[in-house]
Amino acid sequence: MNQPQTASARIARKLVIDLSVMTVIGLVLAMIGPFGTATAPLALRLVSWVALAWVGYAFYRPLAPLVAWLHVRLELPKLGLWIGLTMLATMPLTAAIWVIEFLPGPIPAPTLEDALFAYLNVLVIGASIVVVFYLLERGKGDTPAQPGATSPVVAQPAQQDDPRPAFLQRLPAELGSDLIALEMEDHYVRAHTMLGSDLVLLRLRDALGELDGIEGAQVHRSWWVARDAVEGVEREGRSVRLVLPRGIAAPVARSRIAELTKAGWF
């Protein structure tokens, strides 16, 4: 039986995959030769664009966990965070590329027009790279997917002769029936159980209507939590999170804190 990957092995595997993707992007850009680079020798374009793709990776890849962190704590839409943070990250990246372009020196100070032109050029390519990362992150939860869970589960009609709540009937058998939480992800619901997580093609409000018999509450606009699954509470300033099994932490909306406190959740 395969042993679970260690955290360092998962990080190394992800790094190899990500850098491979960036290398392919760099090779494609080198072949296209955008922004006047088509006249440069092919070998120089290959080295330059692959190197710039890797530099771009260093600036843009941290956006994914930062978006997830800000989404939970500030309750801001993920798409808006992606756009805003991409525009911010492009500023230092543009400066870095400007410096690299003139190495080993001297490095001239750009005019306002030069800076704006360089920024827009970098933003066009950087935004394309971020779109790749955004698409890779869509459908991912805070916990790793289970083996064999390669695509979202399409919601199926509940079986009349099955006594379980209708939503549990939609889950793969390998996830069991010990539901921990539901997490909204775009048009999907990520079901967290004691055995793993998977996506279900169903809106959260529809999923909540199929949980008859399971005690729980919608603690956040994008989270529902089973009452019996709560192991503790984390507080950080005015932010409150429910500690759940398997290292899952569900944010609690500020508007729900008083009601849940009264109900004995805290």
Helix and strand arrangement:
Elements (H helix, E strand, L loop, with lengths): L6 H26 L9 H19 L2 H12 L3 H24 L10 H26 L15 E2 L24 E7 L2 E6 L2 E6 L2 H5 L7 E5 L2 E4 L5 E5 L2 E5 L5 E4 L1 H9 L4
Parallel strand pairs: 1-4
Antiparallel strand pairs: 2-3, 2-6, 3-4, 5-6, 7-8, 8-9
Helix pairs in contact: 1-2, 2-4, 3-4, 4-5
What does this structure look like?
The chain is α+β, with helices and mostly antiparallel strands and 266 residues long. Helices cover 45% and strands 17% of the residues. The chain has seven helices and nine strands. It has helices at residues 7-32, 42-60, 63-74, 78-101, 112-137, 204-208, 254-262, and strands spanning 153-154, 179-185, 188-193, 196-201, 216-220, 223-226, 232-236, 239-243, 249-252. The strands form two sheets. It has a six-stranded mixed beta sheet. A three-stranded antiparallel beta sheet has the order 7-8-9. A hairpin with a 2-residue loop joins strand 3 (188-193) and strand 4 (196-201). Helix 1 (7-32) packs across helix 2, helix 2 (42-60) crosses helix 4 (78-101) and helix 3 (63-74) runs antiparallel to helix 4 (78-101). The longest helix is centred in the first third of the chain and has 26 residues, at 7-32. The protein is elongated and about 70 Å long. It starts with 6 loop residues before the first helix and ends with a helix. Mean pLDDT is 79; it is low at 1-7 and 139-151.
Short description:
With 266 residues, the chain is of the alpha+beta class.
Strand content: 15-25%
Question: SS-based structural class?
Answer: alpha+beta
Count of distinct strands: 9
The rough form would be described as elongated
- Roughly how many Å is the radius of gyration? 23 Å
Share of residues in helices: 40-55%
